[in-house]
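Q: Could you fold this chain for me?
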Amino acid sequence: MYYPRLKDLREDNDLVQKQVAGVLGIDQRVYSNYETGKREIPTRFVVELAKLYKTSADYILGLTDEIKPYSKTKKNTSL
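A: Sure. Below is the predicted structure, expressed as structure tokens.
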């Protein structure tokens, strides 16, 4: 699947593919394949990229247009 926001976020943060690949611990060519949709991006990398760009995984995946990350709230576990 192709995630156009990967490239947009990278460019908005003035990073090159090699820098992002370094954060993920992978080769630049592998990361390039994620940006172009030639390879599926593993969930753990989506999470790392959300942290890097201070956004949500949902934003990266195109499930929301809200770029701000979700706030961390305690879940009520008492029922």
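A (continued): The mean pLDDT is 91.
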